[in-house]
From TrEMBL:
This is Glyoxylase-like metal-dependent hydrolase (Beta-lactamase superfamily II). PANTHER family: QUORUM-QUENCHING LACTONASE YTNP-RELATED, QUORUM-QUENCHING LACTONASE YTNP-RELATED-RELATED. GO terms for molecular function: hydrolase activity; metal ion binding. The keyword Metal-binding applies. Residues 42-252 form the Metallo-beta-lactamase domain. Keywords: Hydrolase, Metal-binding, Zinc. Belongs to the metallo-beta-lactamase superfamily. InterPro entries: MBL_superfamily_lactonases, Metallo-B-lactamas, RibonucZ/Hydroxyglut_hydro. It holds the Pfam family Lactamase_B. It comes from Pedobacter cryoconitis. It comes from the Bacteria.
């Protein structure tokens, strides 16, 4: 198995929304905001070479939405999914599997592209993976979350015939060395890849832990549907990560790709940060 970082660009989200009840005077020390209270975030995907399979975890926001929608998120930076794949010697047609942690627009928007007046899979040779519980949650969204579940990103996946579901069994093996963990606080049945790589356990943290700035337990996003569930999940997850020295791969941290955590007298805190390629 080989792992590759795939950067798809940067965007901005409101700092207060990203840090919930934590005061700005505290969170801005690690994530400084601009004049509009917006902080910069990555949309970092992961490419997994595994035998004859080339698996892409998440796809970023894409570019098919209209200018008004995209203007809310201040997309910037030079990275795109196409450029990042090409830098590793691949194209979108080489992808065999697209593993979607969940169906919020900044995680699955790049899964579908607009060709003329048609919405079609961006990865024409790939099987798209979700799970039935989360899929149903996304296609029948609650009023609070429906702005994050865009039909243009989701329904064409099913219509293409390329969609398959993973069982919602905790720890299920997707591939040898690739197990799936589930989290239910951010959104229902979000999937976190757990990978065995070079004698390390790497967890793709998705939105359970967006950045190193979210390591302290109370730092829970206002975007989370069930914040107390997130708090419980984070505590269990981070204590396990500290005890077993897991590597946490960070999808939204604009600066840090990977980190480890440690137990301190103040609770779980950051241990070190590094790039995936340094392993």
């Amino acid at each position: 198995m080989n792992l590759h970082t795939i950067e798809t660009g940067l965007f901005k989200l409101d700092g207060g929304a990203m840090f919930g009840v934590v005061p700005k005077s505290i969170w801005q020390k690690s994530n400084p905001a601009d004049a509009n209270n917006m902080c910069t975030w990555a949309m970092r995907c992961l490419l997994i070479e595994d035998g004859n399979r080339l698996i892409l975890v998440d796809t970023g926001i894409g570019n098919k939405q209209d200018e008004k929608f995209l203007s809310h998120y201040y997309l910037h930076g030079d990275d795109t999914i196409e450029k990042s794949l090409a830098a590793k010697g691949f194209s979108k047609d080489d992808i065999t599997d697209v593993f979607l942690t969940h169906l919020h627009f900044d995680h699955c928007g790049g899964a579908i592209v607009r060709e003329g007046d048609q919405l079609v899979p961006a990865f024409k040779q790939a099987t798209y993976w979700s799970n039935e519980k989360h899929w149903n949650w996304a296609v029948h969204p609650n009023d609070r979350e429906k702005a994050s579940f865009l039909k243009d990103n989701i329904l064409p996946i099913e219509e293409s015939g390329q969609l398959k579901f993973i069982s919602e069994k905790e720890g299920i093996e997707f591939r040898p060395g690739f197990n799936v963990r589930f989290a239910f606080g951010h959104t229902d049945a979000m999937m976190l890849p757990e990978l065995t790589y070079k004698n390390h356990t790497i967890i793709y943290a998705a939105d359970l832990l967006p950045s190193v700035g979210h390591i302290p337990l109370p730092y829970v996003m206002a975007y989370d549907m069930f914040p107390l569930q997130t708090l419980k999940e984070k505590k269990i997850f981070l204590e396990e990560a500290a005890a077993k020295n897991y590597i946490l791969y960070l999808e939204h941290d604009a600066v840090n790709e990977c980190c480890t955590v440690q137990q301190t007298e103040k609770g779980i805190r950051l241990k070190e940060t590094f790039k995936l390629a340094e392993l």
